[in-house]
UniProtKB/TrEMBL annotation:
GO terms for molecular function: GTP binding; GTPase activity; translation initiation factor activity. One of the essential components for the initiation of protein synthesis. Protects formylmethionyl-tRNA from spontaneous hydrolysis and promotes its binding to the 30S ribosomal subunits. Also involved in the hydrolysis of GTP during the formation of the 70S ribosomal complex. It is found in: Cytoplasm. GO terms for cellular component: cytosol. The chain holds residues 271 to 743 of 843 of the full protein. GTP binds at residues 79-86, 126-130, 180-183. Keywords: Cytoplasm, GTP-binding, Initiation factor, Nucleotide-binding, Protein biosynthesis. Belongs to the TRAFAC class translation factor GTPase superfamily. Classic translation factor GTPase family. IF-2 subfamily. Its main location: cytoplasm. This is Translation initiation factor IF-2. It comes from the Bacteria. Residues 70-238 form the Tr-type G domain.
Length: 473
């Protein structure tokens, strides 16, 4: 490979390595320093691949206003377990996709598109819940434009409902409330609306801005209304993308298929992905051998907001990885290899969690007004509220503490996910992180701090904040 890049003979390179005392064969990997010595020895120029090169190759030029075309919204359904997320996704798919489709078979590829009565096209992510939403976001792929929050009318606003609200707010994604199971005789939608008020979600029925629709995934009642509400919200957002550029998309899901090799469902975000395109996706690369849509049909291309299965990968990427079309296979491979190496280096350096001070510094670098996002978990509601109140008092014009999420109970993986996505530390007050959360925090470098005295917690955050302030003078 090295000889090839230098346009030298392999034998000469191997000989030269041997003269340096390295007994290698032509397929052996050599380290970077050795490679550089060899390159110099042969009188060639060294060019290291770096982040900025990667960015150069992946054209990130901004689009001209006249090139932007409307695109469908991408919707994620969230809500508490058993409130009907899966049923709702199935009901929407069934009424809108299967009907009229020859054979009526839809493929589960991780996302699907429907057309509303009024002709609007909507793209639904088929993985309900905020775990997927957050893990995508933490990998830099914010694909969701609208969150549909499902609350069962025969139940209440539950912990995961609140989590979902906070996730949507942290991501600044608008919400639509679907009050589900309206067919049940014990359904009490008014109670749901009132409870939402306590979480600063004011629905239209309560003279607020958030659209709310009563639905039943079982009878189909309200489904069309829900879809039109989404279409209306999308119109307000004025979502656009440039279909005439090298495609970029996000991996929704990926797996190794026995018959087809690595397959990834990609939601195109901008540009148009075509058969034959060369691409890099996370640490993998490839050339599009075939594109398959949510109806299981082969398609020649996929434009913005369209989900497609991509065949022709060299390996299996991860959900949330970003796909970029590049010009040559050499570029694609180089970027993929660079990323794999960078990820390896990062893992080696991990273990050292990001400290409060570093997070503060980062907040400071990022914005005019520094904002330290935090998560709070406590043993009882009273403590959680007291901490949130104390935290919100810290700060002045330059620096502010923002509580992304607070709750009662152990620190979970979902908390760590949200913390990572937002660059926030997690504070546990008289609670610990469970084992999966601890592992996940170690891997992701998320800082978890434990306290049993509120004053200590407040003091630490204040110290970090004032450290930041004094550093600015
Ligand atoms: P998820 O955990 O949020 O995905 O919830 P599921 O979709 O699995 O639904 C949980 C339970 O509620 C299942 O037993 C569903 O059959 C039931 N369910 C969902 N939607 C409705 C509905 O609109 N009406 C009634 N009566 N039951 C529903």
């Amino acid at each position: 490979e090295l000889a090839n890049r230098m346009a030298e003979r392999v034998a000469d390179v191997v000989k030269s390595l041997m003269q340096m005392g390295m007994m290698v064969t032509q397929n052996q990997t050599i380290d970077q320093d050795t490679a550089e010595l060899i390159i110099e020895e042969f009188g060639h120029r060294i060019q290291r691949v770096s982040d900025s090169d990667v960015e150069d190759v992946i054209q990130t030029e901004t689009d001209k206003a006249e090139d932007l075309k409307p695109r469908p919204p991408v919707i994620t359904i969230m809500g508490h377990v058993d409130h009907g997320k899966t049923s709702l996704l199935d009901a929407i798919r069934k009424t809108k996709v299967t009907a009229g489709e020859a054979g009526g078979i839809t493929q589960h590829i991780g996302a699907y598109q429907v057309t509303t009565e009024s002709g609007a096209v909507l793209s639904f992510l088929d993985t309900p819940g905020h775990a997927a939403f957050t893990s995508m976001r933490s990998r830099g792929a914010q694909v969701t434009d609208i969150v549909v929050l499902v609350v069962a009318a025969d139940d209440s606003v539950m912990p995961q409902t609140v989590e979902a609200i906070n996730h949507a707010k942290a991501a600044k994604v608008p919400m639509i409330i679907a009050i589900n199971k309206i067919d049940k005789h014990e359904a009490n939608p008014t109670k749901v609306r009132t409870e939402l008020l306590q979480h600063e979600v004011v629905v239209e029925a309560m003279s607020g801005e958030v659209q709310d629709v009563e639905v039943s995934a079982h009878t189909g009642q309200g489904l069309d209304e829900l879809l039109e509400a989404i279409a209306l919200q999308a119109e307000i957002l004025e979502l656009t993308a440039n279909p005439d550029r090298a495609a970029q998309g996000a991996v929704i899901e990926a797996q190794l298929d026995v018959g087809r090799g690595p397959v990834a469902t990609v939601l195109v975000q901008t540009g148009t992905l075509r058969q034959g395109d060369i691409f890099v996706v996370g640490e993998q690369y490839g050339r599009v051998r075939a594109l398959v849509n949510d109806k299981g049909e082969r398609v020649p291309e996929a434009g913005p907001s369209v989900p497609v299965e991509v065949l022709g990968l060299n390996g299996t990427p991860e959900a949330g990885d970003v796909l970029n079309v590049v010009e040559t296979e050499a570029q694609a491979r180089e970027i993929a290899e660079y990323r794999a190496q960078a990820a390896k280096d990062k893992r080696a350096a991990a273990g050292a969690a990001t400290t409060l001070e570093q997070l503060m510094q980062k907040a400071k670098d990022d914005k005019d007004v520094s904002e330290l996002p935090i998560l709070v978990k406590a043993d009882v509601q009273g403590s959680a509220e007291a901490i949130v109140q104390a935290m919100e008092k810290i700060g002045n014009d330059e620096v502010r503490v923002r509580v992304l999420h607070s709750g009662v109970g152990a620190i979970t993986e979902s908390d760590v996910g949200l913390a990572e996505a937002s660059g926030a530390p997690v504070f546990g007050f008289n609670v610990r992180a469970n084992a999966p959360a601890r592992n996940s925090a170690n891997q992701k470098g998320v800082e978890i701090r434990y306290y049993s005295v509120i004053y200590d917690l407040v003091d630490d955050v204040k110290a970090a904040a004032s450290g930041l302030l004094s550093a600015e003078i």
